[in-house]
Design brief:
This protein has 239 residues and is an alpha/beta fold. The protein contains eight helices and seven strands. The N terminus is likely disordered.
């Protein structure tokens, strides 16, 4: 079981941005993080470019020296990019922020608040706080997300409204302790499963969400949902 953490224990937040071919959105996305006010907490921004074939890394470099840019030598996937970032970050809390514009960085202070207050070691930004389908989200995607949340809740005897949310904040020491194996989008179910398996509380905070289409660059596919169910099930019964 996790133990409460006091506010004074936290000094810095590391915002991890995995990116692959996001030249159309990454500047606006990163500038939103740069402008973010976290009060007494310092922040660092760590972008992991997953061997983009467009101008993504060049745009990140143009945004200034305050951003750490890690460039993968081969395209390995979102999970591998996040695992790479965990080797470099120095913050007490790790936040995952996608390079697209589906999520709003303005929600990050509320996302980390339960961790800073010592109420939970992890916090997920839920897109389904009211139960309704977010505007712009296709029904098939909504159904897949609901199935994943129900699967996680049943497997771990809990109540989780949004397992597949990008916006996940976790104490960095705890996230590193999980010895993550993920390569692609199975990052989300692996982290969820390992948190719940070890009986760590996950707070849920409502967040804004603007769904984008495949034509706009969305990369997740139907088979990633099947892999997510398998990952949740696997880590329910294994280390």
């Amino acid at each position: 079981m996790d133990t409460p953490e006091g506010q004074d224990n936290f000094v810095k937040v590391s915002i991890i941005v995995p990116a692959y071919n996001e030249e159309a959105t990454i500047e606006e996305s990163i500038r939103g993080v740069i402008d973010l006010d976290l009060g007494d907490l310092d922040k660092e921004i760590v972008v992991v470019d997953d061997r983009s074939t467009d101008r993504t890394p060049a745009i990140v470099r143009s945004l200034g020296e305050g951003i750490v840019l890690i460039e993968q030598t081969v395209n390995r996937g979102k999970g591998a990019a996040i695992r790479r970032a965990l080797d470099e970050i120095t913050g007490d809390i790790a936040v995952i922020h996608d390079a697209d514009l589906e999520y709003n960085p303005a929600d990050i202070p509320a996302l980390i608040a339960p961790i800073v207050a010592g109420d939970a070691p992890a916090s997920f930004g839920t897109r389904f706080a009211g139960g309704a389908r977010p505007a712009g989200m296709k029904f098939a995607n909504y159904a897949a997300n609901r199935i994943l949340a129900i699967t996680a809740s049943l497997l771990f005897a809990t109540s989780l409204s949004d397992e597949a949310t990008c916006y996940k904040a976790v104490r960095s020491d705890l996230l590193r302790s999980f010895d993550l194996k993920c390569q692609r989008f199975e990052f989300c179910p692996e982290v969820t499963a390992k948190l719940l398996r070890d009986r760590h509380k996950i707070a849920e905070v409502p967040v804004q969400y603007h769904a984008r289409s495949v034509e706009e660059g969305k990369k997740i596919h139907w088979y990633d949902g099947l892999e997510a169910i398998w990952t949740l099930t696997k880590y329910r019964f294994t280390k």
